[in-house]
Amino acid sequence: MSESRVAKATIRDDARLEALAEAEEEHGSLADAIRFAVSEAYVDGDDVGETEDSVISLKAREGHRKLVEWTGIGGRIELETAESVLANHLNIKTDAIRQMVVKPLKARDVIRLHQGIHDVWIIVGSLDDATVSVDTEPDAPSHKVATDGGEARERLDELAAAETEATHGE
């Protein structure tokens, strides 16, 4: 088992602070951003045996596991729904999901994105070398598309209309 160490540094330079904030947003946490930067700057990928392209991060793997749980292999889920579910499950900002989960999984062909007329869908593949087609039928036993079917949106519209009637006396 390798040794671990906690590092602490004070940064006062505005440009570095701004870059650090962007890296934190991109990686989901300050610790992950710093680990990535140290790996990129000082660790030779050949010596470690892992490169950024060949390794899927733990957060991306956890995200994939959650997508498979929801849709099954070959299943579909709306991108926005997936971002919300994954942000909640992984306890990271919704804005960081595309960078931390979707992008790495897509780069490794673990998921595919399908642009529909109104929505973008994620088609979930497996972590092994099997590829997934847009036309692939899901392995999930009885799941249809993982979405609320618009029921929640319709209910919110209904409540908003009722509130408007109540406030305007219509």
Descriptive labels:
7 helices, 170 residues, 8% strand, 2 domains, mainly alpha, three-stranded antiparallel β-sheet, Arc Repressor Mutant, subunit A, flat
Short note summarizing the structure:
By secondary structure, the chain is mainly alpha-helical. The protein has seven helices and three strands, in the order ααααβααββα.
Describe this structure in words.
This protein starts with 13 loop residues before the first helix and ends with a helix. The chain has seven helices and three strands; from the N terminus they run H-H-H-H-E-H-H-E-E-H. Helix 4 (58-71) packs across helix 6 (94-107). The chain has helices spanning 14-27, 30-42, 45-48, 58-71, 79-90, 94-107, 151-168; strands at residues 76-78, 111-115, 120-124. It folds into two domains: 14-48, no CATH class; 59-156, Orthogonal Bundle (Arc Repressor Mutant, subunit A). Residues 46-53, 130-135 and 140-145 have low confidence and may be disordered. The chain is 52% helix and 8% strand. A three-stranded antiparallel β-sheet has the order 1-3-2. The chain is mainly alpha-helical.
Could you say which structural class the secondary elements and strand pairing correspond to? mainly alpha
Q: Please estimate the helix content.
A: 40-55%
Q: What's the CATH class label of the largest domain?
A: Mainly Alpha
Computed over alpha carbons, the radius of gyration is 21 Å
The low-confidence parts are 46-53, 130-135, 140-145
The arrangement of helices and strands along the chain is HHHHEHHEEH
The overall pLDDT, averaged over residues, is: 76
Shape: flat
Care to count the β-strands? 3
The major β-sheet equals:
3 strands, antiparallel
Structural domain tally: 2
CATH architecture of the largest domain, by name, is Orthogonal Bundle
Structure annotation, total helices: 7
